[in-house]
Design brief:
four-stranded mixed β-sheet; 4 strands
């Protein structure tokens, strides 16, 4: 039997330059959710960041609204559910233009 050396690597291909967490803000209405998201994106664009992470939690209020707003945003190139190392279904990986 031939012995093989397996170099297995777990790769995190999305390394956020900034992170925003809605958990720290308490209960928010839709206006506040949108306001915080827009401010975060504007700040990141100003600083030249391209990859950011938005932690929404897995709930049915913040996450769907944030996804909708990201889809409509002209500042966003793409977004997707976060990978294993970034929170999975409780976060969104965003690439800014």
């Amino acid at each position: 039997m031939k012995k093989t050396n397996l170099n297995l690597k777990i790769v995190n291909d999305f390394l956020p330059q900034a992170t925003f967490d809605y958990h720290n803000l308490g209960i928010l209405n839709s206006y506040e959710i949108e306001k915080y998201l827009n401010e975060f994106i504007q700040d990141c664009r100003f600083l030249g960041y391209k990859q950011v992470l938005i932690i929404t939690g897995k709930g049915q209020v913040v996450r769907p609204l944030v996804s909708k707003l990201l889809k409509q945003s002209k500042e966003v190139s793409e977004y997707k559910t976060a990978g294993y190392f970034n929170g999975q279904e409780g976060a969104i990986e965003v690439t800014l233009k």
